[in-house]
Amino acid sequence: MPMNILVPTEGSPLSTKALEMALTDYSDASITVLHVMDPIGSGLTIFDVMRPKFRNGAPPGSVSPEYWREWHDTAEENAETVFESARDLAAKQDTEIRTVLEFGKPADVILEYSDEHDVDRIVMGSHCRSGAERFLLGSVAETVVKRAAIPVMIVR
Questions:
Q1: What's the CA gap between 56 and 71, in Å, rounded?
Q2: Residues 6 or more apart from 26 whose CB is under 8 A from it?
Q3: Which end of the chain, N or C, is surrounded by fewer C-beta atoms within 10 Å?
């Protein structure tokens, strides 16, 4: 039975590098590319590259249902852009990947997905933040490494 590899991505160069490594190192594995959109997260995380910004700085509770529909549609469009790049990269190596879009706090979603889908290993990029930036922004990769019940490969 092939290994199940999870590659969380937001479309950054480090996420792409992590996918490249997964495709190379686990060529016989079933690879799932997971993109997490966080609609209410505060501060920036590594998954914010594609996240639409709130209009006029309005907090989530003060925007209309129409805004959330638009936000959701934009999130799906952004995810498709990320997935298309991932599929193109996989196709260059004659590999097919599965793509999944989830909504929520990135580290929590990655961990829950890996638990619920019998993932054998997580391969993900890390931006290697340090000092005040890391304290203020946190680290999705660090949280996943600390809490995962399976091996996690961090690509830098």
A1: 14
A2: 3, 5, 121, 123
A3: N
Name the residue among 47, 39, 30 with its Cα closest to residue 117.
Answer: 30
Starting at the edge strand found earlier in the chain, the sheet holding 152-155 runs 98-103, 30-37, 4-8, 121-125, 152-155
By C-alpha distance, which of 34, 29, 38 is closest to 11? 34
* Mean pLDDT of all residues belonging to the chain: 84
Res 29 pLDDT > 60: yes
DSSP 3-state of 35: strand
Beta strands 30-37 and 4-8 are parallel
Phi, psi of 60 (to 5 degrees): -55, -35
The pTM of this model reads 0.82
43: which 2 tokens? 């501060």
The first and second tokens of residue 100, run together, are: 């999944």
Which amino acid would we find at residue 76?
Answer: E
What DSSP state is assigned to residue 43?
Answer: S
The CA–CA distances, whole Å, from 74 to 69, 101, 155 equal 9, 13, 28
120: tokens are 């054998």
